[in-house]
Amino acid sequence: MNLLKQIEQEQITKLTTGKEIPDFAPGDTVIVNVKVVEGERSRVQAYEGVCIARAGGGINQSFTVRKISYGEGVERVFPLYSPMVDSIKVVRRGKVRRAKLYYLRGLRGKKARITEKQDHAADAKAAS
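-> structure tokens emitted (128 positions)
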């Protein structure tokens, strides 16, 4: 069993070379830059939304991002260690008490807002 974890860890380090994956949790607003191939051309497209779930473990880890596009809710599942994912950037941290935020699917407008997490430890460090 330990050998499997070791091989998995080697694959994760191989896939993340030159790429930094930040610590983020459900409730955080993230920008995921995705490589899109159209014919022979390739480009990077930004997908910004709220992370509503993280699933799996190890190399099979994935996360779901939800955004509102032209008044319609759109969700997309990204494998965390996929070569298709170019980069991930955390825009703001959300204060939530759930691991899965599927309840956001039924909310519209202001009710779907997530309050921002206050980091008092960072504020105290900056002040001193």
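The chain has a mean pLDDT of 88.
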